[in-house]
Amino acid sequence: MPPLRLLVVLFLPLSLAAQIEIHVSPTGRDTADGTLRSPVATLERAAALVRVARERRPEAAVTVSLAPGDYPVLDTLALTAADSGTAAA
User: Fold this and answer.
1) Sequential pLDDT tens for the chain (89 residues)
2) Which of these, 1, 19, 41, 89, has the minimum number of CB atoms within 10 Å of its CB?
3) Domain span at residue 45?
4) How many domains, in total, are found in the chain?
5) Which residues contact 41 (CB under 8 A, 6 or more apart)?
């Protein structure tokens, strides 16, 4: 196997492991886990999952992906510094 291909094979899983993606959809459920197949329904739940992900894996980049649609916010959505990204992310 050529050296470059070997490096890609060895390091690709590491780069994928350092990423967390939380999916939100108007048709999702807030009891879901936020995966592509099981999205959450609200921005509030997505923010809560971001906080949990950052506590468990602070080195991982966290992305929230919103499916097209309307997201009614029934209460104030308060984001804090804990919800913010980092210079490395």
Assistant:
1) 555 454 444 554 544 457 999 999 999 999 999 999 999 999 999 999 999 999 999 999 999 999 999 999 888 888 888 777 777 65
2) 1
3) 15-69
4) 1
5) 24, 25, 26, 27, 28, 29, 30, 32
